[in-house]
Amino acid sequence: DSGVTQTPKHLITATGQRVTLRCSPRSGDLSVYWYQQSLDQGLQFLIQYYNGEERAKGNILERFSAQQFPDLHSELNLSSLELGDSALYFCASSPRTFTDTQYFGPGTRLTVL
Amino acid sequence: GENVEQHPSTLSVQEGDSAVIKCTYSDSASNYFPWYKQELGKRPQLIIDIRSNVGEKKDQRIAVTLNKTAKHFSLHITETQPEDSAVYFCAAQLSGAGSYQLTFGKGTKLSVIP
Question: Using CA atoms, how far apart are residues B77 and B70, in angstroms rounded to an integer?
């Protein structure tokens, strides 16, 4: 157990819908990262927050957005869902913003029908 | 941006043999290189990492080597066991200019045959 929690574990929804994935980092960690893992794309970095502020953006679609709250938990919002958005979404946390080990949560499996 | 190539994509070894997975990266400014092990449907778990000021690091049966000049790093697993069977990912991290994300290789599926 890495200490990073994610809810829900599984999510099944329909195309066009909107969902919110939640992540709580390890106690004391200020940085949260979101990754998407699909079969053909491997692990893709989406976005990073540090102490409530966006710090880095990767291959995140405009339909996706995230935020980090004062209690340091983070939410990833996915809207206008498409079949291709079906994937495992992982959250990771680290104590600071750079060159620190990232610990991954158990992931949320999203299925878009 | 950074690009990480990982080889091989699949690897089968007999129990007790060694396994080697190799990665190359494109940006010479990358300075942190972790390796993650992922079992089916589970989270990636860090197994070893190395920073750019070190050439080699060892932890029991696992070792990682880094060649900064050639921009490649490798994972070595000795005396493999069936429980080593999993997908292994290498990654490279750039730090600076506000960009600190990990760029992952596409993974190596390791099968250890009893």
Answer: 22
Smallest Cα–Cα separation from B21: which of B29, B39, B33? B33
Task: Please indicate whether, in this complex, the C-beta atoms of B102 and A102 are within 8 angstroms of each other.
Answer: yes
- Quote the tokens at residue B1: 């941006």
pLDDT (0 to 100) of residue B107? 95
Query: In angstroms, rounded to a whole number, what is the distance separating the alpha carbons of residues A104 and A91?
Result: 6
Q: Which residues contact A27 (CB under 8 A, 6 or more apart)?
A: A3
Query: pLDDT, tens digit, for every residue of A90-103?
Result: 999 988 655 578 89
B24–chain A nearest CA distance, Å: 16
- Interface with chain A: mutation pick from B43, B57, B99, highest number of A CBs within 10 Å: B43
What DSSP designation does A99 have? Answer: S
Task: Check if A67 contacts B (Cβ < 8 Å).
Answer: no
Interface of A with B in 88-107 (CB under 8 A): 90, 97-99, 101-107
Which residues partner with B33 through β-bridges?
Answer: B50
* Pairwise pLDDT comparison (A74 vs B1), residue with the higher score: A74
